[in-house]
User: Fold this.
Amino acid sequence: MGIRNSILGFRNSDYGHIIENIVFFELLNRGYTLTIGKLEENVRNREFTLLKSINDNYEKTILTLDRVYNETSEDGIKCRNIIDFLLDEE
Assistant:
């Protein structure tokens, strides 16, 4: 983030990118493999469809800032709030 802020300048309203960066490194630290997207309804459907098409037994989780989808599950795919995920101690 420091390099990004140095090049682009610091913007107070740019929380989305900062949170995405925090989550990315936390997931790497926890040993996850991940992809990133915004969870609008069409994106939510796309993400769930893609994850449903993967025929394996690995846990699949979509992280979002949305509270609407927090702690929901669809066909075994979890949808969790990012803040709740980061506060969990594993």
